[in-house]
Structure formats: C-alpha cells, structure tokens
Fold this sequence. Notes:
This protein has helices at residues 30-35, 95-100; strands at 2-14, 17-19, 25-29, 43-48, 54-62, 69-72, 84-94, 104-108, 114-118. The protein is mainly beta. The protein is globular, with a radius of gyration of 14 Å. The N and C termini lie far apart (38 Å). The relative contact order is 0.32.
Amino acid sequence: xxxxxxxxxxxxxxxxxxxxxxxxxxxxxxxxxxxxxxxxxxxxxxxxxxxxxxxxxxxxxxxxxxxxxxxxxxxxxxxxxxxxxxxxxxxxxxxxxxxxxxxxxxxxxxxxxxxxxxxxxxxxxxxxx
Length: 129
C-alpha cells in the first residue's frame, strides 16, 4: 500500500506576477525549486492565504535568484501580485519509506529568498516572513 505525504513546500511565498495569457502553470525561481526538491513539470498544489483558493498546476522554472512566483493561464485569475501563497508537493511512499521520510519545508523572506529550511511543522508555531 502507498501513502501520499507532503514531500516539500514553499511556505508564504509572495506572488510576483499573474500572467493570464500564458498557457498554464506556476513559474518558480530555480533556487526555490532546488531548495524544495521540485522538478520541472511536477504537479503542485497552491494555497492562496489571501482568498482561500486551493488549486493544482505544474511547475516551470523561472530565472535563478529572481524570486519569481508567477501564476500563469487560468490560475492567474485566482491570485494577485502580492498575495501570499503556499506551494505544496506530494509524494507516494510505501509505509516503511513514509515512516523514515523527512519533508523539506522552505521558509522564504519578503523577496522569496530562502530564509530557513526545516524538516517538520509543529502545531501552534506561527511563521511570518
């Protein structure tokens, strides 16, 4: 049996752009992709803290060091530049592998640069960039 777990997440990233005319996806700075172990075309869930929308799309690389977080295509209607989002990737694991797995939780600053990387979340801890 397989279990689906959070593989990684980028916590409280700031949307830098929303491009309705692009065919789809989320463009993410390659530094953030690397820190969160995200691959090109990987499926991710987006949670918009400003309006509560949750949706799925796939990742395309943005310029390294740019801090870019750009929602493209129809997803651009669900965000505005400046919105705070959480980008979550999931993986399927066998139970034994799942019990030994540590996710990557990427905390970013106001410019979407990596500020801290953790391997767990604790209830009651509030993290603001």
